Amino acid sequence: MADISIIGAGSWGTALALLLYNNGHHVTVWSIVEKEIEMLKTEHEHKDKLPGVKLPEDMEFTTDMEDAVKGKDVLVLAVPSPFTRNTSKSMSPYVKEGQIIVNVAKGIEEDTLMTLSQIIEEEIPQAEVAVLSGPSHAEEVGRGIPTTIVVGARRKKTAEYLQNIFMSKVFRVYISPDVLGIELGAALKNVVALAAGIADGLGYGDNTKAALITRGIAEIARLGMAMGGRLETFSGLTGIGDLIVTCASMHSRNRRAGILIGKGCTMDEAMAEVKMVVEGVYSAKAAMGLAKKYNIQIPIIEEVNEILFDGKSAAEAVGSLMLRDKKIENPLIPWEEE
Hints:
By secondary structure, the chain is α/β, with parallel strands linked by helices. The protein has 16 helices and 10 strands. The chain has helices at residues 11-22, 34-43, 65-69, 84-91, 116-123, 138-141, 156-166, 179-201, 206-226, 231-234, 237-248, 253-262, 267-274, 279-294, 299-309, 314-322; strands at 3-7, 26-30, 45-46, 50-54, 60-62, 74-77, 100-103, 128-133, 147-152, 171-176. An 8-stranded mixed beta sheet has the order 5-2-1-6-7-8-9-10, with helices on both faces. Helix 4 (84-91) runs parallel beside helix 5 (116-123), helix 8 packs parallel to helix 12 and helix 12 packs across helix 13. The model has no long low-confidence stretch (mean pLDDT 94).
């Protein structure tokens, strides 16, 4: 049995807390929001973000960061990506040398273009940082629906340790050393999911969705490989797998926000309606910054940025994508001699 704290009591943190508890571990859940912790203590359910998923009576809840961090075997960092840096700063004084932190949020910091694990390593250099990602909506994990994810870590020993902690009959865990590729796939797919939602909001069909998914993963892989990620990662669970589920499911806050934008809402109106952090909005500008830095073309993500931040209409953006210069689908495949 491991002693584990979940730092962040949103839908994903709550679902993982229940999974780890059911795996036989001692689980503490931390949130900075006192009302949220009081609700979890009294109701044993996150009625706002994960309704219907009951938590056990003996699960612990706290707003005390020192109590949540000190002496724990594993810390699962589950706050939304915009709060990763400040939360890491708050954690750092209590984190011991070599303590394992598993980041489960998805995003890229706009100002620095750093991945979330890079932020954690900068703020908590004494920690050993790993990541957990894949096609895994909290609403389904909380209900025990079979799910498969990937744990990324630099040391195989750490990855295997976390694999054993998280693995269950309903939660299959693979391991990988490609931490960067895992995080880039996780962050960038949210931007493409916004595009998929926008297409749904415009009333487009399955042909459009399939095009966005396949050309979207091409963009993600192109940029990710230029940054040092592995092609195998982008063709796996944390690449195409996570992209498919996020573009197709109504559990996806990014897709839901995109649908609202496609129907004419502004970005702010869509985010207010979804009532949760829409990670793709925060990653969109960062993705453009990375594309410029590495001189990579990402036309779908570029059009999403123009819709979100430059006032371009969704219909006009689709026209721009469809009428781009003619291209070869895969320039690495040779032609026969004429």
